[in-house]
Amino acid sequence: MNDFERKMDNTVGEGLYASKIQCFQVNLGLVCNQACRHCHLSCSPERTEVMEWRVMEMILSAAETVRPVFVDLTGGAPELNPDFRRFVSALRERDIPVQVRTNLTVITEAGMEDLPDFYRDKGIQLVGSLPCYLEENVRAQRGERVYEKSVEALKMLNGFGYGVEPGLILNLVYNPGGPFLPGDQSALEKAYRKELMSRFDLRFTNLLTITNMPIGRFKEELRVRNEEKEYMELLRNSFNPTTVDGLMCRYQISFGWDGIMYDCDFNLALGFSVDHGAPDHISKFDASILSGRRIVTGSHCFGCTAGSGSSCGGALVDPGA
User: Fold this and answer.
1) pTM exceeding the 0.85 threshold for the entire prediction
2) Residues of the chain with pLDDT under 70
3) What is the DSSP letter of 186?
4) CB 33, CB 109: distance < 8 Å
5) Distance CA 76, CA 228 (A)
6) 3-state secondary structure (DSSP) of residue 63
7) What pLDDT shows up at residue 261?
8) Tell me, what CATH number does 197's domain have?
9) Residue 273 lies in a domain
10) Domain that holds residue 27
11) Considering the domain boundaries, does residue 320 fall inside one?
12) For 287-298, what is each residue's pLDDT tens digit?
């Protein structure tokens, strides 16, 4: 029993279990046009792992059975998968809502200029990564020219109605630039709106705050700076029991590029597939078992339960809850 399991046992008297499957989160591959220093999956242009169409077909079949509220496409840069448009189109033909997690800069790459039009045509909801509204902070976290390209992409998306028209959702994601918890989500959203509007006349729908997980490149950086122990203590000491009901792993299933199934994208990064008797590959998908499966946990799970909580949908509770 790991320390998070012990915390669950002391808090709710049992392990952590899934409640239902509302979301399919699909990692289309680890190829990315960026190599961000906080990336928990260590994605980069040098990675070669991509989901093949045969795996996508099995996910399509499972999605038709479960009818999730939406399918959440991620990566890497999911748009760089050769079958990205084909997969999105197949999901929309089945009337399954799709959300794409984009790093924004991929839209500025050669051959990708038509993405905003494609998104709008298919009615896709977007979640764009912009870890700060300040150029120097984005540069430090994501590399040279990323801020400028992100602004360019946001202008393009605004031009197609994203973040402007009610039905075209463009959410932005903030994550801390160091070993500390995100600030209040609503306060940060107000700051983002003010700064992006005054600097570039940019609009977006909502801001989502996500805690940096002590895994992948961020963990490596913590170790280099000798800050890993201190950060883990921060996460443990900031445990908030009111976040448990809303934890994303309880309402989703995550599919790796090779079809292996996980409770979340962070477990995917660590190679912790679903377990406790549940099938671990899309070829053995069984909704009746997976919907109530016991979730595989580890010390990194304190990242999702610290402070206001963290999920792919942002904070889980109001500050101080």
Assistant:
1) yes
2) 320-321
3) H
4) yes
5) 25
6) helix
7) 98
8) 3.20.20.70
9) yes
10) 16-305
11) no
12) 999 999 999 999
